[in-house]
């Protein structure tokens, strides 16, 4: 994602930005959030927010990036002439920094699971993968710190070598393969005895399960999966060529994110009821349930290993862009400083990620506001910094940018979508974001 790298085609752009946007949010966070917040009710709210709030905001971020064509702690000044508005870019920078801190915890878990499954295979105990003990593995402070250290190191090396392009090329077949695997798991899950009540739990929106907290978290989830307010998508669009089509790209990314979220839900919830787990398991949900599903398959351990590698790949294509965002803002796209900034940034991320990881072991009894340290970092990013960033950008776009210029970038279409989109950004969404923001503190 270096400055000079422009994607020649719209497909190249979509692949790269989808690689960044689709990651742990859809596959790991969605099922666990839905499990804690009422299943089908959460899914419904998530869909409504993603389509009515997320999609227009994503189109907005793409438009800003395409108009501004520079890094995000400069772009607001470039577009409006007001230097202080760059603070919106710095807010996004802070958000991705903290986000990487707790993202790497889950990345570390994937690495620990990969090593454990390999160990099971080489010691000919592959029939035992269903007995992987999440609590024992993740409750081990040193193991998790090493795991997340490896995850951060992998990310740093990729960013330092500037080989993201290679990774993006690989995502052309890794992502479809991941889809196929998800479908495979869904089919297996649905075939289990007792699958139906879990399926009903995730698909049936029960009104009595809707809570104010659930509504807020569903909105936070839409922001998280679409990377909104972190300026990640603005950065991608700023690298894109003129040919990139804003609406089609945004729609594709929203559709893929929804699809992966639903597939993850369909893979996990039927298995939860079949194996007698609770949907409210929390962040470990995916790691607790999936080994059981794979255990039921022939060559299950082998398939689980491939799945985990694909999952790691999806997490890495997101984490490299998390780090890259900080690197491009601090180097101002000066490539000579790239390696040093990447290393310093990673060391700082590693430092803040340690308390996040220990939230699942030695620091688990530290609870305040949204829960553990990990929960609070997530809440700060998804429910505070991301909405603030998105709000700031809606105000800039709706109040300060020239409407006709926006129309040009938005492009014409037979449904005349520009006006409804523009009024949504100018009047409605800022109010919606402020209202939701205020409600959570009452
Ligand atoms: N959308 C990513 C996911 O679902 C997380 C994310 C948020 C992100 N903001 C970002 C990734 C900025 C890269 C850059 O996993």
From TrEMBL:
Cellular compartment(s): Membrane
InterPro entries attached to this UniProt entry: Na/ntran_symport (IPR000175), SNS_sf (IPR037272), YocR/YhdH-like (IPR047218)
Transmembrane segments: 12-30, 42-64, 94-122, 142-163, 175-203, 215-239, 251-277, 297-320, 341-360, 380-401, 421-441
Molecular function via GO: symporter activity
Keywords carried by this UniProt record: Membrane, Symport, Transmembrane, Transmembrane helix, Transport
Entry keyword annotation includes Transmembrane helix: yes
Membrane protein topology class: Multi-pass membrane protein
Pfam families: SNF
GO cellular component: membrane
SUPFAM superfamilies assigned to the protein according to its UniProt record, in alphabetical order: SNF-like
Domain of life: Bacteria
PANTHER family: TRANSPORTER
Name under which the protein is recorded: Transporter
